[in-house]
Inverse folding.
């Protein structure tokens, strides 16, 4: 008996295109998603971009795809990706609906983390099928973004009747759908911004401080440390906390603040905010011993622990003059927790 005929797998570009894809907003996200959909067998047909950078990016990521005004993108596309900044999205949707650019049955997909599908209501009333597909990924505007979509979670919000379509599109782009309720979109997006966007700021600031401390390659020093910290945090949550705050080393924390005020005062508010939050979480999870918390919270509030250290520091040879008496609130203190007595925290406050 002859063996069954084996059909060779076909290249996605050889398959009949299922959807004509258009991109409104050729920033870092739109071209990458269009390329991923192209690899899944869909056909990019039009892209709009305003800035020179957007136009160059579109030409690089989507060669041979025409650059046209936004209204013309909708004329040619079955699936339209609205990949514009969050604050620009409502006006864009309203404008497209008012001009009659939207066709009934057209899939309209936005990639904003903040919004669900309610922002697409003007388009829905015009007959569009609304989807909110937000890739939980940072983008560079290069081909590497398409590769990073493999296994990337997408925050998905869609009407129940479009649930299967939303899931299919995410899976075709290599992602994993995670359903987010309409009312939870702002909280969901805030969590991602806190964990990813603010991380960039923290890392960049840490590299600057290491450079000031004489470290020649701050990135090499931080890379293994940050990788291990992130891995531990994802595995163990708050139990992964280490360092002077978790240990209750008030003197070390006060020394950090003194050095930051001397060499990088702009870093002080961020250090204080993160250290206070870390202390609160370490205390509530039993990682920070209660008997050590008082001095630590005092150091973070600018109390006598820091004052003692400041006096000792100012007494060193070559040190500058000691600061004069305080005549007003410390700008680094939370006014809601400051009291007349520097040695105490406000009992009505949050315990920092």
């Amino acid at each position: 008996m002859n063996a069954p005929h084996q059909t060779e797998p076909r290249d996605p570009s050889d398959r009949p295109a299922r959807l004509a894809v258009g991109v409104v907003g050729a920033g870092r996200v739109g071209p990458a998603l269009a390329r991923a959909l192209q690899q899944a067998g869909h056909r990019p047909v039009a892209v709009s971009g305003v800035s020179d950078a957007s136009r160059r990016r579109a030409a690089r990521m989507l060669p041979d795809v025409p650059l046209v005004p936004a209204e013309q993108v909708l004329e040619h596309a079955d699936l339209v990706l609205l990949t514009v900044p969050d604050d620009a999205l409502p006006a864009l949707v309203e404008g497209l609906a008012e001009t009659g650019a939207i066709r009934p049955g057209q899939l309209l997909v936005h990639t904003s983390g903040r919004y669900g599908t309610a922002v697409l209501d003007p388009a829905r009333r015009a007959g569009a099928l609304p989807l909110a597909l937000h890739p939980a990924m940072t983008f560079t505007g290069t081909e590497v973004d398409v590769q990073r979509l493999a296994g990337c979670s997408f925050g998905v919000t869609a009407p129940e009747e479009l649930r299967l379509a939303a899931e299919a599109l995410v899976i075709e782009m290599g992602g994993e759908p995670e359903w987010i309720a309409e009312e939870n979109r702002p909280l969901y997006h805030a969590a991602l911004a806190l964990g990813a966007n603010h991380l960039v700021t923290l890392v960049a600031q840490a590299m600057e401080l290491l450079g000031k401390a004489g470290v020649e390659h701050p990135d090499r020093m931080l890379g293994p440390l940050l990788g291990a910290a992130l891995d531990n945090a994802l595995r163990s949550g708050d139990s992964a906390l280490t360092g002077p705050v978790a240990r209750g080393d008030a003197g070390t924390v006060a020394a950090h603040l003194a050095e930051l005020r001397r060499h990088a005062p702009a870093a002080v508010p961020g250090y204080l905010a993160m250290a206070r939050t870390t202390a609160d979480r370490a205390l509530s999870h039993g990682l920070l011993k209660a008997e050590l918390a008082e001095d630590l919270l005092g150091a973070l509030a600018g109390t006598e622990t820091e004052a003692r250290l400041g006096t000792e520091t100012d007494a060193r040879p070559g040190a500058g003059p000691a600061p004069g008496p305080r005549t007003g609130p410390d700008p680094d203190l939370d006014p809601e927790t400051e009291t007349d007595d520097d040695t105490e925290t406000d009992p009505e406050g949050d315990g920092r």
In short: Confidence is low (pLDDT under 50) at residues 1-17, 303-352. DSSP finds 14 helices and seven strands in the chain. The first strand starts at residue 20 and ends at 24. The chain has two domains: 17-180, 189-314.
